[in-house]
Amino acid sequence: QVQLQESGPGLVKPSQTLSLTCTVSGGSISGGTYYWSWIRQSAGKGLEWIGRVYSSGGTNYNPSLRSRVAISVDTSNNQFFLRLSSVTAADTAVYYCARDVPDVFSYYYGMDVWGQGTTVIVSS
Amino acid sequence: DIVMTQSPDSLGVSLGERATINCKSSQTVLYDSNSKSYLAWYQQKPGQPPKLLIYWASTRESGVPDRFSGSGSGTDFTLTISSLQAEDAAVYFCQQYFDLPPTFGGGTKVEIK
């Protein structure tokens, strides 16, 4: 079955850019009509959706982060990516990648596959 | 953004007893076109990612035990665990996917009493 795995630096300095990769295995990132999301979880803000990307490269972002976020996809390597610029301590969190699944009505109803998560600490 | 409010923050339930968690959205998450509420429930255990339990407010994801049930429509929803098992100790989140950005409730921690 489809599995997701996040990777990237666990420590990022303030004002720098956080970069994470999610590798999809057990299925093609281009197969089906899935969106691929990034979500983060911190003690202070709970679960927060960051944004999502379609296999064609189309994206949607959380307005609260839109000015600092870029999500992209590499279908040839079955990966998608998160870049979050100008990070501060408030960006310290566990970052998850997940698959958004559509229903028969073509509305997205939830995230049915998640990576294990990767902890990112923002500190000098 | 649609704000999701869960209650209680935590509850202790004895094994075999019923656990009930509530979730309220700040606006409807019901699509008139298909009469479905786009409300999902997730279970999260320590050190693990959230696991999708229920979508459309009341449809169990494949493999989820039938002691888990969801109900509600529009803005008010409930997750019920009919007979609590030890492995059900976890934090439970509701999430709306009616509108972007998808938003989550603050979570309810279920503990064994």
Supply the number of helical segments of chain A.
Answer: 0
Structural category of chain A: mainly beta
Q: So what's the oligomer here?
A: heterodimer
Number of helices of chain B: 0
Structural class of chain B: mainly beta
What is this structure, in a nutshell?
The complex is a heterodimer of chains A (124) and B (113). Chain A has strands at residues 3-7, 11-12, 18-25, 35-42, 46-54, 59-61, 69-74, 79-84, 93-102, 108-114, 118-122.
Description:
The complex is a heterodimer of chains A (124) and B (113). Chain A contains no helices and 11 strands. Chain A has 124 residues and is mainly β. In chain A, the strands form 2 sheets. In chain A, strands 2, 4, 5, 6, 9, 10 and 11 form a 7-stranded mixed sheet that branches. The mean pLDDT of chain A is 96. In chain B, a hairpin with a 2-residue loop joins strand 9 (68-73) and strand 10. Chain B has strands spanning 4-7, 10-13, 19-25, 30-31, 36-37, 39-44, 51-55, 59-60, 68-73, 76-81, 90-96, 103-104, 108-112. Chain B is built from no helices and 13 strands. The chains are: A mainly beta (124), B mainly beta (113). Chains A and B meet through strand 5, strand 9 and strand 10 of A and strand 7 and strand 12 of B.
